[in-house]
Amino acid sequence: MSSWRDNWGFGIVTFIWGILTVPMIVVLILLGALVMGPHRSFWFFGPWWHRQFFAVCGITRRITGWEDLPNAIRDGEQPSIFMSNHQSQLDPPYLLGAIPTHAVYIAKKELKWVPFIGWAAASAGAIFIDRSNRERAVASLHEAAMKVRGGRNVVIFPEGTRTRTGELLPFKKGGFNLAMDAGVPIVPIAIRGGFHILPKGARRVRPGLYEVRFGAPVDPGAFLDRDALMAEVRGRIAALLLA
Predict the structure, then answer these.
(1) What are the extents of the domains in the chain?
(2) Are 106 and 154 in contact (CB under 8 A)?
(3) Whole-angstrom Cα distance, residue 215 to residue 230?
(4) Which CATH entry fits the domain spanning 3-242: 1.10.220.10, 3.40.50.11030, 3.40.1130.10, 2.40.110.10?
């Protein structure tokens, strides 16, 4: 690894570079949408952000386990819910390119109107959830489940936030309610290296290996309740982190 990249000055410069290049990519997506449509434009330009950023920062990518998944999931014929641990602010853009089939995030509806980030999420086809009260939240999750059953792949970070220690946090229940309602497989994902490269609260990007590991899919229908399903998925992600 190049030692000149592993210093505070360069790490801070690349952090600023990452922030400045986000609106540039979104502008490309919006301009491309005029020609090829918003969805195709997002998936053409969107993954390029993390590729150029990783190259500048000296971050090496590694993706394993995808080739072992069932063909229907890899071909996009079987909609799935990809569940991953959350180590870094770079996890969301990285997973957009690391998952070979198109998969979008579930986000609160307020994000839709946030300049640049919200516009890009809407172009990608993100599913926005109304969390203003319990009834609307439940209705939004049911609507999201219908979209997943209809063919939409989604990515969820069941911890709900980034880890501050590098350790796996307790899982929240919402994503598992969605999975049981949608009745589609959960694909466990382990992210390794993100905590070293850009942990929560850091303003310095470090070079290193950023790895995404896919595990065998979990069928929600094989479990009697949500808690058992949640424990199984958490156990598989924990095992992937240690493998």
Answers:
(1) 3-242
(2) yes
(3) 15
(4) 3.40.1130.10
Decide if pLDDT at 50 tops 70. Answer: yes
Token representation of residue 66: 């995808």
Q: Are strands 186-192 and 208-214 parallel, antiparallel or unpaired?
A: antiparallel
Give pairs for 7-13: CB < 8 Å, separation 24+.
Answer: 8/204, 11/204, 11/205, 11/206, 12/203, 12/204
> What CA–CA distance (Å, rounded) separates 132 from 55?
40
- Predicted pLDDT at 237: 98
**What is the model's pLDDT at position 1?**
46
